[in-house]
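Every protein is a chain of amino acids, and every chain bends into a shape of its own. The protein below has been through that process, and both of its lines are reproduced in full.
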Amino acid sequence: MATTAAHQCRIYLHQNTTNSSTTTMPRQRQRTSNKQMDRTDLEKAFNHRVKTQCSHKEAAEKFGVKKTTLVDAFNRSKKEANGVTYVPVPGKVNMVFTPEQEGLIVKYTIQAAQMFYGLPRIEVRRMVYNYAHACKSKSIPEAWERNRMATTDWYYSFMERHPDLVLKAPEGMSIARIVAFNKVNVETFFKAYTLALEKYQFTPDRIFNLDESSLSTVMKPCKVVCARGKPVATQVTRERGETMTFVGIISAAGQAVPPVFIIPRARWNPTFMRNTSFGSKGILHPSGWMNGDCFVQTLQHLHERSGSSDENKILLIMDNAECHMNINVVEFAIRHGIVIVTLPPHTTDKLQPLDVSVFGPFKTFLRALLNDHALMHPNEHITVHQLPEFACDAWTKAANPVNILSGYRATGIWPVNRLIFPDEAFVGAQVTERPAPPEDFVVEVGPPSSDGANSSDGEDQPPASQVIDLPDLSPTLEDDPDDPTGTAWPDPGTAAPGPNTATPGPSTATPGPNTATPGPSTATPGPSTATPGPSTATPGSSTTTPGSSTRSTPPSITPEAVRPFPKAANQRPYGKGKKRLRACILTENEEAIVDLRVKAAKKQKLEEKKKAVAGKKSGVPWKKKPAPVPESSEEDDVRVLLDNSSEYSDDSEFTESSYPFLDKEPEVRDFMHYSTYV
């Protein structure tokens, strides 16, 4: 009976041990005691015994170390040294990578994330597995070989060893923004901007930034406190809201101009601008979106608030949106002393002060105000008539001098700082970096620079030591007894050649089964040229003795050689011949102005054609509108033009006798009331 009970107890303990090892086994062993030995105390005890020739027990008790540990230190010193020199305890011998190699993995993953092509957890484990074979690691676990990737235990331990790495959910980024933000576009903008500053000597209070933002009566709700573990909290809102355009204008002196609202209505209502900031302007448009005519009225608002003129010009920095690129806008700006500098396309998130530091807090304050109104008025919905009032309150809080000045400072606009963006900020553009398009496709400011605009020429090329010649090294690994799988190096044909791929040249090295004979090499590794000559490597440093279990790790192997960074194809069309307007002084760029005039003429011709077709379908003939009369200034004399085809004209020569009443003196009853004839 006792035997049976003991047997059942062993079975129970075995089952519990198995379940705990498979389901609840900790990834890191927890210490059961706080006893830890300082290695410096062990070294002090070792040196004390060597110096005083005392016993092991006496030296161990004096410095608080175990006697057996001190005895092991002396035995290790006798085995590896002269017996009187302290030899530290060797580190972990089962590590797959050295600390230097793990540092390269960390650097590679961070750079890949900065290029907007970060690696998921599964891809990191696969890359690490291939990199371990490339480094000829002797401690690759069997679980790595079965799954062809690193285990999750190693991944979590790796993340704990490097706390600067973290797993995050990335945000979406447009490929147009990644490609556009490069050194060439940034330098082009600062070239045009500084040219305008030097020419007109603008002060901070005469430098303005203008941009639009969409407002809706149904904004994203604020976070609320709710029970943990329950579904996502909901908030009562309208299913669909009405939108309008908000125009913000700020100056480099930290001041904000009263905003402009594009209201989606056809008729004006005084309640639209109720309780808004003094000087705010409302513009009606059926859709509520900005267009060329509305933008001219916006510039009129800026002209009135800034007092711009030909003698006192202002500088306006804006993006080259479709509604901004209008010939009427340019002509209005030229007449009223507004110098327009356009930003490069798709770079407003980096180069526009409003997007950098003002619009973010503005939307946050606006959501809070709308949420407070919804809590105080549960049965009411916010309408277009109330939205400008809330927007002005949020704009007053967000457009403060601190936020405005920080936005201008972060973009390098004021104070002027061309080097505000480090090289790491342009790492995303390396994926699609290519030579600059021909000059026929780009509208530049002034003559092109002599050094060219080829950003790929300035790309940092890897040194020759980081280039791996996979085809030349693969024959030496075919008969490797330490690699039974034969996959110590990845197949060079499976990886697409990246930017650091070297062109292998003929090599005179004679591969042997385990020994490589040094000899002259004529391989040309990429852009750098290696001087051919005999190898000066010390025998044993790069030679593997048959039967030996130690191999040297090539220091030039990097994770980038195993998994190159993504690189787009170089042969791509340049917009199918379409001209692309880069950053420039729009009001002084004659070529851009001519293009805008041609574009306006084509647009007008197309609209006339559409109206003519619509008139034919409806049966009502469509008449072309007469050409608009140019606006006359207030200083011009007002002249009345007489038409000779009028009914009062006469073919005969005009004489005073033809109209005798002109010289007749007025008499009584000349001017009689109509009632006298009735």
The radius of gyration is 40 Å. The first strand starts at residue 207 and ends at 216. The chain has a mean pLDDT of 75.
